[in-house]
Automatic annotation (TrEMBL):
The keyword Transcription regulation applies. It comes from the Bacteria. PANTHER family: HTH-TYPE TRANSCRIPTIONAL REGULATOR BETI, HTH-TYPE TRANSCRIPTIONAL REGULATOR RUTR. This is TetR/AcrR family transcriptional regulator. The keyword Transcription regulation applies. Pfam families: TetR_N. Residues 19-79 form the HTH tetR-type domain. Keywords: DNA-binding, Transcription, Transcription regulation. Residues 42-61 bind DNA.
Length: 210
């Protein structure tokens, strides 16, 4: 079954004036979400805060959901760039400690989901498959000539003498972590910010690997 996709912008801006208008709309959307909450988000409110005519807004976006999708895309880019900048830190840590490295990975994954959920919880839950930050970061790291998650994880497990086949273990570790995070996101999102929940996730992974 094809997953429901979020509405998208009508057209991409090319001229400087159009770029300015779309940027103002994006920033207005973020401002409303941050200061007033998702319940106050409407196309008219976005246009008012952006200082643009509602007709100008509709030139580029058919609905507030399309604006949200655009804002989520930009936020994903920012989160992915932040994560890629931490790759060396993770790589250095991975030489010394299995537990500490996995704990940092869990923290990062939880913080990214919380950042995306905070913008508009209902929208993100409905379209989370379209804003898979884990997949997005994996693709970005490879574009930057860094290894994929799986290519990095397998030698990491070998280095720390984890039992079993590292290829299968790596895949199951990824599926276990992502599955638990997604379930928490759907059922009880506040768990993602709970240090005890993160610790239990860490112990689950360590028990399997050791």
């Amino acid at each position: 079954m094809t997953e429901k996709q979020p509405p998208r912008a009508r057209k991409l801006p090319k001229q400087s004036r159009s770029l300015f208008t779309v940027h103002a709309i994006q920033q207005a959307c973020l401002k409303i979400l941050d200061e007033e909450g998702a319940g106050k988000l409407t196309t008219q409110r976005i246009a008012d805060v952006a200082g643009v005519n509602i007709a100008s807004l509709y030139q580029y976006f058919p609905s507030k959901e399309a604006i949200l999708a655009d804002v989520y895309d930009k936020t994903m880019e920012e989160l992915a760039e932040q994560a890629s900048q931490r790759f060396r830190e993770f790589n250095r840590l991975s030489n010394h400690s299995l537990s500490d490295t996995l704990a940092k990975i869990i923290d990062l994954e939880c913080e990214q989901l919380l950042a995306l959920l905070k913008l508009d919880p209902d929208f993100f839950r409905e379209y989370q498959h379209s804003f898979d930050i884990h997949r997005y970061i994996n693709e970005l790291t490879q574009l930057q000539n860094n290894p994929s998650w799986q290519a990095w994880l397998e030698p990491f497990l070998v280095k720390h003498q984890c039992k079993g086949n590292p290829r299968f273990r790596g895949r199951l570790i990824e599926q276990t972590l992502q599955g638990n995070l997604r379930q928490a996101l759907i059922e009880q999102a506040d768990l993602l910010a709970d240090p005890e929940f993160r610790e239990e996730l860490l112990q689950l992974l360590l028990a399997y690997l050791q």
